[in-house]
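Checklist before submission:
- one chain only
- standard amino acids only
- sequence pasted in full

Submission:
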Amino acid sequence: MQYWGLTDPGSVRKQNQDAYQIAQLDKNSLLCVVCDGMGGAKSGNIASSLAVDVFVQEVQRRWSPGTDWDKADQILRGAVKLANFTVYDQAKQFVEFDGMGTTLVAALVRGRKVTVVNVGDSRAYGITENGIRQLTRDHSLVQLMVERGELRPELAKSYPGKNLITRAIGTEAVVLCDMFRQEFQRGDFLLLCSDGLSNMMDDQEILFEVVHGVNKGRCCQRLLEIAKTRGAPDNVTSVLVAL
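Returned file contents:
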């Protein structure tokens, strides 16, 4: 298993409010997480970095190599709950953090079996030589409109309200997360990213860069460069795992 990660402010913003972390839990288990903070220049970066740190530390604290999948799911949900409580508590205690929150998408990789958990519109993709599939469901106003038939999917990226999310870590006392399980084959890829990347590239473009790029170690950099050539108005973060 190989993995790479990269985060960048993008072409417009001076501050990076994204955060990510990759942690080796044991020789066969990998934990990856990406968060995209919100709440303005004073607190978006605090929310994302705090959520990443608390989430990873809680999983590490409760983890053991023999953990079964049901127990692993409980650990991931518990880590989301603790990250949410921590960010929410900080937002309530300090006026400068009022209204802060963050998305969260994380993946527990054990061999070629993966559990993904998400809150918000940061995404996880499964990528093979034959195609790309979004594993997560965006918690966003645009996604709700698409599901209701009020907006065509091809118009979603350009819709004025595309940045409005319906769930976030830290904005409410309790948050619900979605969880997905996926089994991969040798040679497949898992990609986690913030919307700073997914808003700049179509799925098929991401597929081409991941599958056909000669140097996999530079794939995250290439994705960033493409986003920047298109203006990259938001922070850009990606984590790529070769399975």
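Reviewer check: The chain has a mean pLDDT of 94.
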